[in-house]
Each structure stands twice: as C-alpha cells, then as structure tokens.
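Proteins fold reproducibly. Look at a concrete instance:
___
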Amino acid sequence: MSIPAAFDYHPAKTVDEAIELLQQYGDEAKLLAGGHSLIPAMKLRLSQPEHLIDISKIQELAYIREEGDVIAIGALTTYTQVERSELLRKVFPLMPECASHIADQQVRNRGTMGGCIAHADPSADMPGVILALKAELVIQGPNGKRTIPADDFILGTFETALEPNEMLVELRFPKSPARTGSAYIKLSNRASHYAIAGCAAVISLDSDGTCSSASVVVTGSAMQTTRASATEAALVGKQLTDDVIAEATSHAADGLELVGDIHGSPEYRRQMTAVIARRTIKSAIERA
C-alpha cells in the first residue's frame, strides 16, 4: 500500500484560522476538505505537502440557502447535501442530478462543492455544472473577500485563480429565468466514474420556442473544464430543430486540447463530445 510523505497536520476551526495557517506555510501547505482527491494523490506521492490544513470541521461553510435572486452554497457543502436538497431540486435540479452520478455514496458523503472546483480536475462532474450555471465564487484571503466568475476561476489542469494564501468559501448561483431547462450527461469510466466525455447544458427559450440563452460546458474530453462557446453561439436566436442542434454540437470540441489515453483517443473524444452534447442539449430543451 502506498504511504504519503511525512507532513504536519493542522486542524482549523475557523476560516480566519485556516487563512492564518496558509499565510504561515504558503506553497508548502494544502487544504483538506473531503480528501477524496488530495489523499490518493498524497499516497501516490503526486502531491507532497509539508503541511496539511484540515478545514472539514468548519461548519459555518456547510449550507444551502436562498438569498433573493441567488442561491448561496457554502464551500464545505457535501454532494449528499446537494443531492438531497429540496431547495435545489426546485430551483436548480441540475445540481442534485449531477451529484447523484458522482462516484459512490461514500465519496458523495465526504466530497465537497468547494473542494471539487478548487481541485480543478478536468474529468470531474460538478465543475462543469458550476460553469454552466454561471456561478460566482467567493474567495477569502488575508485582505478580505473577492468574487470571481466561475469561468475565470479554472485556468488549467488542477490550476485555478486561487492564491496560496486564499480559500474558496462560497458559491453563488443566480436564478434562471422561466422556460429554462438543464441537463448533465456523461460517458463515464466504469471503474472510476469520472467522465471520459461529459456535457452540462442550461437552455432558456422564448415564448415562441426560440433559444434566448445557452450555456454549454464540456467535461472529461479536454485538459480543463471548458465552455463550448461555438456551440452556444450556434444555438442562441434560433428555433432548436434537430438540424440546428446537430450543426451546433458538431463544434462542441472546437478549440479544446483533447485528451488521449487508454480510455480513448483525441479523435474518439471529439466524436463522443459531439454525441453527448447533442443528447444533453435535447434533454435540456425538453425540460425547458
């Protein structure tokens, strides 16, 4: 069995305490929330932090609440809490739907909303949903809080806009207009349940059925979770016939740095990205 390199363990009881520890140890420290991504990486020695800051007991960061036209979710809210939330089932059914397809129940019981997007694994499910719903992320550091759009947060594979002395504390989702439908579909690896190719889509329709807005995000296929901008542009302002959807989703992988591995070549992922995107968008339209 793999054993992590030696590290010092620091349990933090508050956000301020966690940030003080991040300031003290800088790049030598990692935050531990659910741990389902960090601990395996440490056991394989792909990550070797000298200091582990455990934030899992900061209960003030575990919540789902309605604040006017926004739904606020604390960074330590688990997938299970998302999956079982009646508020989210009513307002943002996409999130409980996605959460129900993540790994297994043990992972969902510990994995957190903030941890998943801060980790920025390109094959993870929830970051695609967070981008598709156009969330704003609240980040806290020694100089206070700042807010950044989810689209500007993920910079690359396991790379985000977080500074070494900052932590993600909240995700904020603006409510969608009427006649909006959403869906998340993936082709998953049978062993890990990660996405080989996945798509999250949020589609809004005018009263005559014309697409007024489209948010389409690709997961799994590329080196980072990415918005399919060409597909979105090809949908907006049109009646979403099968031909329009097929043409739009043929561009779903445009501009992506596609992954090639034992689970599929870049060419295979390009094709599956288009197929999954088409199915996802059709499902979202039906729900709208």
